[in-house]
């Protein structure tokens, strides 16, 4: 896939416009009512942004991965939930594009995704395995009609009720080990979603992510040819951590900007005397810079490794440690910046209806450390550190 600066720029200009014109004005209501950010996703569809990463020969926009990451940042600055919906969809798209191995069903699927701007949700976590994506309970079960069926207890399916298709991890077959996993892509008309819980959360309310029992009947060709462990190591995990960390950076950046606007307004009221909180803002800038540096170096290393023939570096322990650290660092630093912004703005930041409100930012970023529990990632890292030659 070629990288075109002009194509990336046009895509980012359009996303920035959507972030300002659709995501920002609806963000508070989306949060308050825990409703799907329909206006933003519809505007992204109109710009054909849902197929932005799909290769041109399949009808997509063929933008670069770094452009997708920047788009998550831009949307995050205006509405964390919109950015998360966009990021999750793109994680699925990138995983399919990088691992379809020329499979006819998946090429045809990407064509229809581009033509119809289909939105993909995911059911990777599961009741019984928690956030451990490397094990599944539910299995692909061949039926007598040549189709395959599955039933999965999914505790959290973001925008499941609004998606066109579902990306699901499963055991390869009824006799397979929990770690012998595949990914399937089930279309909405093949899938039944039985709600099992609600979504009334502290933050990321607009992602609308209740639990479901997912039942589907799919053709065997809807199983992605690449085994899930490879999809996970080379694409799904690093791409998730990079796109999520970009949108968390976007949320934290907007919180910082609000704190800066607060200090500037205070300075205007009393010209000549820097307000005492100005120093606190400087401390906050240092915290934001740390986050920015971590996020951009994580992206740069992924791009380097992805550009190598065979992408083998992405399957090394050193690479797993690197992307795990990105997730841990960014997910802890983003709420820290938002809390710092609240410290600068005081009650004006704590209130929900001022130009300096950062409550939504803080609540949204508080989901970051538990979206794949950091303790679980630390446990994986601890095992890797015992045996990895290089870190
Ligand atoms: C906003 C949001 C949207 C989401 N959307 C989706 C989606 O669309 N699709 C999807 O499949 N999933 C989604 N998830 C779920 C997510 O992917 C994880 O599965 C989920 O957040 C983990 O749930 P858990 O805390 O019950 O899991 P667990 O990982 O089981 O953790 C439970 C508790 O145990 C602790 N813990 C776990 N392992 C260890 C350990 N080794 N050592 C010490 N403590 C440990 C954790 O810290 C935590 O306190 C979403 C989550 C969020 C927050």
CATH class of the largest domain: Mainly Alpha
Give the overall shape, derived from the CA principal axes: globular
Main sheet makeup: 4 strands, antiparallel
Ligands bound, unique: flavin-adenine dinucleotide
| CATH homology superfamily name of the largest domain | Butyryl-CoA Dehydrogenase, subunit A, domain 3
* SS element count, helices: 11
Kindly provide the radius of gyration, computed on alpha-carbon positions and rounded to a whole number of angstroms. Answer: 21 Å
Order of helices and strands: HHHHHEEEEEEEHHHHHH
Into which percent range does the helicity of residues fall?
Answer: 40-55%
Supply the CATH architecture of the largest domain. Answer: Up-down Bundle
- As for the number of domains, it is 3
Structural class: alpha+beta
* Strand element count: 7
Description of the structure:
The protein has 391 residues and is α+β, with helices and mostly antiparallel strands. The protein has three domains: 5-118, Butyryl-Coa Dehydrogenase, subunit A, domain 1 (Orthogonal Bundle); 122-222, Butyryl-CoA Dehydrogenase, subunit A, domain 2 (Beta Barrel), CATH 2.40.110.10; 228-387, Butyryl-CoA Dehydrogenase, subunit A, domain 3 (Up-down Bundle). Helix content is 54%, strand content 10%. It is built from eleven helices and seven strands. It has helices at 5-33, 38-46, 65-78, 80-99, 104-116, 228-269, 277-307, 317-345, 347-350, 359-365, 374-387, and strands at residues 120-123, 141-142, 148-154, 165-171, 181-187, 191-195, 212-218. The strands form two sheets. A four-stranded antiparallel beta sheet has the order 2-3-7-6, with no helix packed on it. The protein has a three-stranded mixed beta sheet with strand order 1-4-5, with helices on one face. The longest helix has 42 residues, at 228-269. It is globular, with a radius of gyration of 21 Å. The relative contact order is 0.11. The model has no long low-confidence stretch (mean pLDDT 96). Flavin-adenine dinucleotide (FAD) is lined by residues 88, 121-125, 130-131, 156-158, 204, 207, 209, 367, 370-373, 375-376, 379.
